[in-house]
Amino acid sequence: MTQASKAKRSWTTRRDAKRKRMQQADHLLDGKYVETNQVTQALEMLIHPKDRVVLEGNNQKQASFLSEALADVDVDTVHDLHMIMSSLSRPEHLDIFEKGIANQVDFSFSGPQSLRVSQMIEDGQMQMGNIHTYLELYGRLFIDLIPNVALIAADQADAAGNLYTGANTEETPTIVEATAFREGIVIVQVNERVDELPRVDIPASWIDVIVVANQPYQLEALFTRNPRHITEIQILMGMMTLRGIYEKHQVQSLNHGIGFNTAAIELLLPTYGESLGLRGKICQHWAANPHPTLIPAIESGWIDSIHCFGGERGMEKYIAERPDVFFVGRDGSLRSNRTLCQMAGQYAVDLFIGSTLQMDYAGNSSTVTRGRLAGFGGAPNMGHDPKGRRHSTPAWLDMMNPDETLVRGKKLVVQMMETYQQGNTPVFTERLDAVDVAKESNMDTPPVMIYGEDVTHLVTEEGIAYLYKTDSIAERKEAIAAVAGVTPIGQEQSLKQKERLRSNGIVAYPNDLGIRHSDAKRSLLAAQSVEDLITWSDGLYDPPEQFRSYWS
Amino acid sequence: MVVFLFPGQGSQFPDMFYTLPNHPKVEETIERANICVGENPYDWSKHSALQSSRNVQLSLLTIGVGCAQALLSEGISPQFVAGHSVGTFSAAVTANVLSFEDALQVVKYRGEKMEEAYPYGYGMGVIQGLDNYTVDHLLQDARKEGHTVYIANENSETQIVISGCSKSIEHAFSIASEKGAKKMQWLDVKVPSHSPLFSELAEKIDQKLQTINLSAPKIPYVSNRSARLLRDSEKIREDLAFNIEAPVRWHSGMTMLYERGARQFLQLPPGRIYAELASQVFEDVRALSLTNNLDSIAKFLRRSG
Q1: Structural domains counted in chain A
Q2: Inter-chain CB pairs, A–B, below 8 Å
Q3: Which residues fall within 8 angstroms of residue A493, CB to CB, at 6 or more apart?
Q4: Active site at which residues (chain B) (predicted)?
Q5: Number of separate domains in chain B
């Protein structure tokens, strides 16, 4: 091909477009700073119709000032945006669609707005791309959902525009990277402007516009579980899990989520776990939020390292004083990173443990209920077996099927729940609500959280089903039934069937694990209240107001 | 900011007019009803008079509007209004969509025709402990067997009101019990409201409403049938007319408001069932009912913005 035959084209259209937008807004800018009360005006110049806009917000940190400002823009100027959001969770997130400012969305989680999301899709006010897992959504930011504009939140900025995101760094670097390095515009709200940052989390050259918000970004204490509310059934299930899974498979690295079930396990490590002589043998490396209920295990030397998705309110001072355990900056404060922690939780840990509202007879689970579109955030990332993994650990190798020529291990994916949900609904169901929801909402696939084929263990108050040992769908169903208690599927099963599964090691009941029901007492918890957690932390843990119970 | 909740049939009790807050706006509203209908509203709530749906509906409208006017005059203006069944008329009047007098005429017609259509042998009941989906399927099966019974209202996820022929409701109760329902109970309503049995009447009410001058709502109105926020008088007219032929999606409506950030709910008289439901369903909601303590409620709402 000769040079002459090549059509002339510009290779800098994105750069030119960005420059033009920035020039239009130039009169509003003092360096990178825009006045607090001029932010809506700035957005009207910097965002164009049909732009792909990432609005930072997950279940912890929210760019709440910018989302309110975006909901206020003139819809004749800014409209038909394609929003990309980890989480649809604040009322104005939906108002943006109701007003016509945006009409398309890709997201991961919308629990707090799930009814309105469902209504707005039905009414055609919102067109849904997909409900993604966190990692898919972050991945797509670099492939075919590359943002034109990112609206993000940080704690502090300096005069040059460097950012400090501290404990709540979360997905900020990922969003900024996808935007800044392909000529998108990065707009950040900061809680304050300071002369000197404690450390730089995002360099100034990645940032275009900064606004000091009229109030700090919204931050929820989502992962704080008050030990007071942990029940003895949860303690029993925790004991079984410790013995029958963590000890049995020598689980070294793991993720724990938000539940009271897993909070119970965390609080059993220094007591029950210690009595089994397991310290230093299991649960040393974590991909988890800094749960306050981890404090007693940390203090008694169980935990070597914790990498965090995000921060947790009240844990700042404690974390700063435990740099051997947490990832911290030179300033001493936590550095979290949701993308990297999700990736670690997907690929690098031995075990994921989670809970669900429904499980079908094949072991597929979902938290979706009719009339709501909620999504699952990160659970599907961590709650599956990444089949390409090849670093061998005892736990991973334990899942091996020795009959295969090319033997390989499997990630441990544990589902843990009581057989009956609140309101007397059995957790086991022949068909997931998700199947109907998919039909009602014209989704390509039913919103399953964790696929049955990936679930290796099921824990209920009845016992443990070692599903990885089953060799057919029928046997899997039998194993589920064997721990399904008095739910309909559980009642179908005969004692003889249970006995066979038990002798084959496919199910284990508390007795088989050397656990008596009468041992599962609240006194076994290393901390029984938030006050106990404060004591364990040497007074460093400073719980948010709603968890202080001095009056109760 | 507060949401006003206006109750529907089932919340009435004898002599309820005598228990209302002592406020000039309440008295004025009762007087306006008296002039407009030509009857003494106090008589509507006599024990024997409450046997008539028409009297119940006229009472609820007058009481709802009167108490809302009283609160408005004390400087309490709601963020949203939501009425249940005939309560939608109180909500629409409060939102300035139609005049109280026009509402009285339509509600009088609505009540009379509902009663005329099904003078006896019909009613409503509530099933607790089963979800909407389960009850829906149960009733579909019952209808296949020739029963006349429909879902009338989703009060909460596990509290479903059904409507239809009394014998069919009894049948549905017995099936519900087999399926694990915790409690079944008859409601104090003599007509099969919110069911297709009223499709024809709904059309007629709509025709009547079309002759009336309707304005855009000053306060967003929660639809009974779709659980959407309505800001348009045409859509509100349809909801007022056709809510008697379709289930009231109360729980979805309340959830929609909650997702929009509503955290304060005030049930206007009579009763307190909808306030109680709101505080049962949503942990961080403050739900009150206005019994006779108008002054303290008004003060409280003014203080908490």
Answers
A1: 2
A2: 30
A3: A478, A481, A482, A484
A4: 85, 194
A5: 2
Which residue among B165, B186, B207 closes a domain?
B186
Q: Does some domain include residue A543?
A: no
Q: In chain B, whose CA is at the least distance from the CA of A119?
A: B228
CA distance A342 to A383: 11
CA distance A292 to chain B (A): 23
B136 CB neighbours in chain A (<8 A) are none
Question: Is B177's Cβ below 8 Å from some Cβ in A?
Answer: no
- Out of A184, A219, A254, a domain closes at A219
Q: Which of B163, B186, B209 is the last residue in one of the domains?
A: B186
Cβ of residue B146 closer than 8 Å to a chain A Cβ: no
| Residue A112: closest C-alpha in chain B | B259
Pick the last residue of a domain from A219, A253, A280.
A219
Is there a single domain that holds both residue A168 and residue A262? no
Ramachandran category for residue B121: left, alpha or beta (phi over 0 → left; psi -120 to 50 → alpha)? left
Domain that holds residue A41: 22-219
Complex-level ipTM: 0.92
Looking at the fold, whether B144 and B112 belong to one and the same domain comes out as no
pLDDT tens, residue by residue, B40-92: 999 999 999 999 999 999 999 999 999 999 999 999 999 999 999 999 999 99
Map tokens 């003092």 to a residue.
A30
B260 neighbourhood in chain A, CB within 8 Å = 91, 94, 116
- Is residue A481, in this structure, part of any structural domain at all? yes
Per-residue pLDDT tens digits for A428-468: 999 999 998 888 878 888 989 999 999 999 999 999 999 99
Element spanning B117, H or E: helix B100-117
Task: Report the distance separating Cα A525 and Cα B18, nearest Å.
Answer: 56
* Cβ separation B255–A425 shorter than 8 A: no
Q: Find the domain containing B24 and state its range.
A: 3-118+195-303
Question: Chain A interface, mutation test: which of B258, B259, B284, most A Cβ atoms within 10 Å?
Answer: B259
pLDDT at position A3 is 63
Could you tell me if A209 and A231 lie in one domain?
A: no
Q: Is A217 left (phi over 0), alpha (psi -120 to 50) or beta?
A: beta
pLDDT at A549: 66
Q: How many CB atoms lie within 10 A of CB A5?
A: 6
Partners of residue B129 in chain A, C-beta under 8 Å: 423-424
Residue of A nearest to B157 (CA): A423
Omega before B270 within 30 of 0, i.e. cis: yes
Tell me which chain B residues have a C-beta less than 8 angstroms from the C-beta of A115: 227, 252, 255-256, 259
Q: Within a domain: residue A33?
A: yes
